[in-house]
Amino acid sequence: MERDDLIYAAGFFDGEGCIAINKIKTAIAKHPTYQLVVSVCQNEPCEVLHELSNLYGGSLSVQNNGAYPNLLWQLTSHKANVFLVDILPFLRLKKAEADLAILFQEQMGRGRGYYRLTQEQLDEREKMHMKMRGLKKSGKANRRHVND
């Protein structure tokens, strides 16, 4: 992407996007798993989301939640990390969330497969999950004072 396109994507994402470290619990797993998720939901049609999906991959799905259909774009794990690294220099409101998400994904690694995590690794993932939740709560308060 060109620099101007990255700046636009960062501004769009700053206002409309969501960064999460999801905690997934299942009945059969002894410990939860954690996953980086980046998403944006907009009224359809939304050419920006189609363009971002073409560039970064992920999934596009249409949701009918009212008068207008919504288009949801989601990236997970490595693909989410690539997108965040690209737009990071231009983020303002979500910069701290993106920094944490990138650090989280770097610690997760790119490997596939199942292996036993140490208690220290599990604790670190939970700590990052909770820190992201805290950033979201403090970010709402900070956004009200952006123009101060």
Can you tag this structure with a few keywords?
148 residues, alpha+beta, Endonuclease I-creI, four-stranded antiparallel beta sheet, 4 strands, 50% helix, disordered C terminus
Q: Please, could you describe this protein's structure?
A:
- With about 150 residues, this protein is of the alpha+beta class.
- The protein has a single domain, classed as Roll (Endonuclease I-creI).
- The protein has five helices and four strands, in the order αββαββααα.
- The protein has a four-stranded antiparallel beta sheet.
- β3 and β4 form a beta hairpin.
- α3 (about 75-85) crosses α4 (about 95-110) and α4 packs antiparallel against α5.
- The protein is globular, with a radius of gyration of 16 Å.
- About 20% of the residues are buried.
- Mean pLDDT is about 85; it is low at about 145-148.
Q: How many structural domains can be distinguished in the coordinates?
A: 1
Described by its quaternary structure, the protein is: single chain
CATH homologous superfamily identity: Homing endonucleases
CATH topology annotation: Endonuclease I-creI
Low-pLDDT runs of 5+ residues are 143-148
- Kindly state the number of beta strands: 4
Short description:
By secondary structure, the chain is an alpha+beta fold.
What is this structure's SSE topology?
Blueprint (H helix, E strand, L loop, with lengths): L2 H14 E8 L8 E11 L3 H10 L2 E6 L4 E8 H11 L7 H14 L10 H25 L5
Antiparallel strand pairs: 1-2, 2-4, 3-4
Helix pairs in contact: 3-4, 4-5
